[in-house]
Amino acid sequence: MTKNELIFNGNEKQVFSTDDPTRVIFRYKDVTTAYHGVKRARFAGKGALTNQISALLLGYLNDNGVETHYISTIDEREQLCRMIEIIPLEVVFHNRIAGSLASKLGVEDGMKPANTILDLCYNNDELGDPLINRDQAVALKLATYPELDLMYDIVRRSGKLLTDLLHKAGIELVDAKFEFGRAADTGAIIISDELSPDTCRMWDEETGERLDKDRFRLDLGDMVASYSIVLEKLKNVLETE
Ligand code: TMP
């Protein structure tokens, strides 16, 4: 597989085309951003950690009947993925109410809701990724109703699989953001972005310590050390799976 040109240069990742039109290469950067790019910093080794954690979580979903874009790991920073047509919607899965949802609802950060919450957001940086409802998403031709049903089903199944896996590793999955695309090889709707402490809140079950990007958002320090803990705990639990 030959790596060709840069086709997307994001805050935290780059995507390169390859000589196969159905395959791309994701490269994870050391840059971290928060609050839609307002806060930004570089942490040596962070890209290697998000690459590895994402590979383990996406690979776990692939192995358990949820299709994702992840195919294989190339090296410390890069992974081979399926090319997709982007669906500009995000579904955020909440086991707890934290972050912006806690502020919006005026409840304590980390409140346990009576049920799991799924939020549909319009993936649009200029608008700040606002909440959108199903009718609005269909009206803008972002997805069809059956596609939205499928995305919700994928998120419910993935949320449960990841919650249970992380629990075995002593980590609570607080929330997780999922992005989707239509796969270039089969046309299927698949998960098409990383899953890592950059895109999910993860708390140490014993200490309650935040092991995710909130360490950067809230200036708690030791972000790379926390991501390393997540990776080690995940590796340990997957070795025994
Ligand atoms: P929020 O509290 O900032 O709305 O985040 C909810 C979850 O979604 C959290 O796990 C972080 C993740 N997320 C991203 O991965 N990218 C984003 O741009 C935003 C806003 C949230």
Quick one: CATH superfamily of the largest domain? ATP-grasp fold, B domain
* Main pleated-sheet profile: 5 strands, antiparallel
Could you say which small molecules are bound to this protein?
Answer: thymidine-5'-phosphate
- CATH class category name of the largest domain: Alpha Beta
Question: Which class of secondary structure composition applies to the elements?
Answer: alpha+beta
Number of domains: 2
Task: State the low-pLDDT regions, or none.
Answer: none
Which topology of the largest domain does CATH recognise?
A: D-amino Acid Aminotransferase, Chain A, domain 1
**Quick one: how many beta strands?**
12
Q: Helix content range of the residues, please? A: 25-40%
Order of helices and strands: EEEEEHEEEHEHHEEEHH
What is the distance, rounded to the nearest whole angstrom, between the alpha carbons of the first and last residues? 31 Å
What does this structure look like?
This protein folds into two domains: 3-82, Phosphorylase Kinase, domain 1, CATH 3.30.200.20; 84-222, D-amino Acid Aminotransferase, Chain A, domain 1, CATH 3.30.470.20. The two termini are 31 Å apart. The strands form three sheets. A five-stranded antiparallel β-sheet has the order 1-2-3-7-6, covered by helices on one side. Strands 8, 9, 10, 11 and 12 form a five-stranded antiparallel β-sheet that branches. By secondary structure, the protein is α+β, with helices and mostly antiparallel strands. It is globular, with a radius of gyration of 17 Å. The chain has helices at 46-63, 99-105, 134-139, 145-168, 214-217, 223-239; strands spanning 3-9, 13-18, 23-28, 31-34, 39-42, 70-73, 78-82, 84-94, 117-122, 171-183, 189-191, 200-204. Strand 2 and strand 3 (23-28) form a beta hairpin. The chain contains six helices and twelve strands. Thymidine-5'-phosphate binds at residues 92, 99-101, 129, 175-177, 199-201.
